[in-house]
Specification:
The chain is of the alpha/beta class. Helix content is 46%, strand content 17%. Bound molecules: the ligand Nc1nc2c(c(=O)[nH]1)N(C=O)[C@@H](CNc1ccc(C(=O)N[C@@H](CCC(=O)O)C(=O)O)cc1)CN2, guanosine-5'-triphosphate (GTP) and magnesium ion.
Length: 426
């Protein structure tokens, strides 16, 4: 196994920059830099091969089996200037015993050495990418191994069910002492329900990671773009008193009370002979349909629907022109905007509450597969005799699907995809 190195911290000027080395040759390489044997922790002068001073660094040593990767690790905590980092990386690059790490390679080694399971690796990737607080909370829960714990409990129960079934096969010619069907059914049903619930949460979890879409729609000139600008806190969209100003869908990404949200401003909805505006209107309709939430802006003379459901919010526009006491928003003055934001965020929070610890399409697919096998098992249990072999086979398939969640079974084919999204140095 090669010894690898990479800058672990972000590029650019900083107080401190950390370069990590992992592998058998890490200690030797650091000894050459320091011109002394590494200790557990010490401040040392680092030199290049010609003996020129590079920096005075804090050097940490993590022995094999007691490091992030599980391999011997050296961390060089440097003064965080681009020039210091470049000089040290150059010297390390000239060391024939080392090579630069690929994206995610430290984490891949942590996985290979059993320091993390596959779901934790996915959680770690999301944790590093987290921009909002809700994203951080979700990712850190997965990283801490929550999916692994649930998968383990599913596994234990399904193995118990399989053992009960196998016992009836072994005793096929004899009198089976007790009827195992009720216990098997209870185990399988319990696991299937929990899994189903988890898989339902995945779609929302994906939104939590990639952002919810909130579309602002309504007739021309009601003030959609003015509201967007107010919510974004800057002048993103052109506004004017001319109906039909907005034509393209304008997207603004923002952090809405901790939730990642992409706001969409759209063309005013109306029948039009203008070809370009017409294209804008059909785009507006299509995107609004796909959106998680639609904010319908209404004129003072439109009726507000009573039963709005949980994906549609109706608001009257231009509150400042309506006089007091009318529930409305004004992008111009900001009136009612806080209430609108609170309403959007509470609708989204309701959905977020359904998120469990599974969060990837990969998890959903594995759980749906397992649920399929378990449904077969439950159906077969209702039938008479002779099905034990098939039952056991379906249970084993369900267990394999559960194991794939945390990478207990061969998952080589998903690794490249997962690690492709990592940054170098992680
Ligand atoms: N400087 C530094 N900070 C970091 C990391 C790192 O690699 N280096 N991490 C990287 O993601 C995270 C922390 N994760 C880590 C997980 C395990 C070990 C580790 O060496 N564990 C050993 C020894 C622990 C100890 O000495 O107390 C072990 O568990 O046996 C280090 C970091 C965030 N902060
Ligand atoms: N008094 C008042 N005028 C507003 C308010 N919001 C927008 N306006 C005005 O209404 C006109 C239309 O505003 P826009 O934000 O461009 O309306 P829009 O819904 O995006 O219009 P289209 O892009 O054509 O569909 C502009 O002249 C705005 O200044 C408001 O809250 N109060
Ligand atoms: Mg507009």
């Amino acid at each position: 196994m090669d010894t690898i190195f990479a800058l672990a911290t972000a590029r650019g000027r900083a107080g401190v920059a950390v370069i990590r080395l992992s592998g058998a040759a890490a200690l030797g390489a650091s000894a050459r830099l320091m011109r002394s044997v590494p200790v557990a922790r010490g401040v040392r002068q680092l030199h290049d091969a010609e003996g020129a001073l590079l920096d005075e660094a804090l050097v940490l040593q993590f022995p094999e089996g007691r490091s992030f990767t599980g391999e011997p690790v050296i961390e060089l905590h440097l003064h965080g200037s681009p020039a210091v980092v470049a000089a040290v990386l150059r010297v390390l690059g000239n060391d024939p015993q080392l090579r630069a790490a690929e994206p995610g390679e430290f984490t891949r080694r942590a996985l290979e050495n059993g320091r993390l399971d596959l779901a934790q690796v996915e959680g770690l990737a999301d944790l590093i990418d987290a921009e909002t607080d809700a994203q951080r909370r979700q990712a850190v829960r997965v990283f801490s191994g929550a999916l692994g714990e649930i998968a383990e409990s599913w596994r234990v129960r399904l193995i118990r069910a399989a053992a009960l079934i196998e016992a009836t096969i072994d005793f096929a010619d004899e009198e089976v002492p007790v009827d195992v069907t009720p216990e098997v059914r209870e185990l399988v049903q319990g696991v299937r329900r929990e899994m189903h619930r988890e898989s339902e949460g995945v779609r929302v979890a994906e939104r939590l990671r990639d952002g919810f879409e909130v579309a602002i729609i309504g007739e021309p000139n009601v003030g959609k773009s003015t509201l967007l600008n107010r919510l974004a806190g800057r002048d993103v969209a052109i506004t004017s008193e001319i109906a039909g100003t907005t034509r393209d869908v304008i997207e603004v990404r923002m952090d809405l009370e901790g939730l990642p949200v992409t706001l969409l401003d759209t063309a005013g909805l109306r029948d039009t002979d203008d070809i370009v505006e017409g294209i804008g209107v059909s785009r507006a309709r299509a995107r609004a349909e796909e959106a998680d939430i639609r904010v319908h802006m209404l004129d003072s003379d439109d009726d507000i629907p009573q039963d709005a459901g949980d994906s549609d919010i109706y608001v009257r526009s231009k509150a400042d022109l309506l006089g007091p006491g009318v529930a409305a928003v004004s992008g111009k003055t900001g009136a009612g905007v806080d209430q609108l934001v609170a309403r959007i965020s509470s609708l989204l929070q309701e959905r977020v509450a359904s998120v469990g610890v599974a969060m990837k399409e990969r998890h959903r697919v594995a759980m749906v597969q397992a649920v399929g096998y378990l449904t077969n098992v439950e159906e077969s249990l209702d039938l008479e005799d002779g099905m034990a072999d098939l039952l056991a086979e379906d249970l084993r398939s369900a267990i394999r699907a559960v194991d794939s969640l945390v990478g207990r079974v061969d998952v080589e084919h998903v690794l490249d995809e997962i690690f492709a999204s990592f940054c170098i140095g992680k």
